[in-house]
């Protein structure tokens, strides 16, 4: 499905009413799920893949109400709009499973904006290990008219038959839901969009190859020349990588009289968890953070980045906190 770039995920705490797709029902609790988002670029279209890792367990939990929401994502043409996918279990009058309902939701960041969005998109269910498609929606034209005081709006429900879900889960316990966004420009606009997406796909591919090679160096302790230590946990790293990322540690390693320079060792005494330090070390080589990182870990990483002047990591953490804050404000405004 093209080159992929992982992004961090969030959980949900709101849900569409069973009777309406334009209002939310505060009486229904959205099921928290272990899910991630990734982006795939393919010529003129961009696909947003929502992977629900624990879908098999959710499906067999015997809950009568299952209501799942994807992490938020942004579409290239609408930077101030947050989008989500929503998967809802529908029951018939006899209490048996009827089908699954799939929606796309658009939420704006500010109440005072009035926005009209026309999105051409298509939903798919795909196999986690291949491009095998078990279900396809028709090409959809969703028009979202977000008035001045209207925070969000749902698309029309798409019905997924039960057998399509079962087919996808035949060999794996996870579910992939894909929303493919189509760009409708004709002529020069269409060609321009194709060029931009091809450049983005090439950039992502080169980025992943480059960082994979750096990470191989980290996992090979035989080439390490210094360590990072936190609460007795030792991370074998490379001095030039650490110095390139951290202005503070660069200065200390260049000072022949510093403890770090004498012992080729960085001791982290900050009051942070071991997971935050591990993510810090991983970031030095991979330039990315895990998709399931939580708010506390982001705060701790931001503290470390600020302490050691790792400016790229600091900016990333600040962006992630702002993104989470925007999502929380959007969700509160929808209730």
UniProtKB/TrEMBL annotation:
SMART domains: BTB. It comes from the Eukaryota. Residues 224-293 form the BTB domain. InterPro entries: BTB/POZ_dom (IPR000210), SKP1/BTB/POZ_sf (IPR011333), TRAF-like (IPR008974). Residues 1-36 are annotated as: Disordered. PANTHER family: SPECKLE-TYPE POZ PROTEIN. This is Speckle-type POZ protein (inferred by orthology to a human protein). It comes from Strongyloides venezuelensis.
């Amino acid at each position: 499905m093209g080159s992929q770039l992982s992004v961090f995920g969030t959980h949900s705490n709101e849900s569409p009413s069973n009777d309406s797709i334009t209002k939310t029902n505060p009486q229904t609790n959205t099921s928290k799920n272990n899910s991630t988002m990734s982006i795939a670029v393919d010529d003129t279209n961009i696909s947003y893949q929502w992977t629900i890792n624990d879908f098999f367990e959710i499906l067999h939990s015997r809950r009568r109400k299952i209501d799942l929401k994807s992490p938020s994502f942004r579409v290239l043409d609408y930077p101030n709009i947050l989008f989500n996918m929503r998967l809802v279990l529908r029951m018939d009058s006899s209490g048996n499973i009827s089908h699954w309902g799939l929606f796309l939701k658009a939420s704006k960041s500010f109440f005072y904006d009035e926005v009209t969005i026309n999105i051409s998109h298509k939903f798919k269910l795909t196999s986690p290990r291949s491009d095998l498609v078990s279900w396809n929606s028709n090409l959809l034209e969703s028009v979202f008219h977000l008035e001045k005081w209207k925070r969000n709006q749902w698309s029309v429900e798409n019905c997924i038959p039960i057998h399509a879900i079962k087919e996808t889960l035949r060999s794996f316990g996870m579910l992939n839901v894909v929303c493919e966004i189509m760009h409708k420009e004709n002529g020069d606009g269409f060609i321009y969009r194709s060029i931009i997406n091809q450049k983005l796909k090439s950039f992502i591919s080169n980025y992943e190859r480059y960082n994979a090679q750096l990470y191989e160096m980290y996992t090979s302790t035989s080439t390490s020349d210094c360590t990072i230590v936190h609460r007795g946990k030792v991370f074998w790293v490379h001095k030039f990588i650490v110095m390139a990322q951290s202005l503070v540690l660069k200065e200390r390693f260049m000072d022949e009289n510093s403890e770090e320079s004498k012992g080729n060792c960085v001791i982290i005494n900050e009051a942070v968890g071991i997971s935050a330090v591990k993510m810090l070390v991983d970031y030095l080589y991979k330039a990315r953070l895990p998709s399931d990182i939580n708010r506390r870990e982001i705060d701790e990483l931001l503290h470390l980045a600020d302490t050691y002047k790792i400016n790229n990591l600091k900016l990333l953490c600040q962006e992630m906190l702002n993104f989470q804050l925007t999502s929380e404000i959007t969700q509160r405004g929808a209730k």
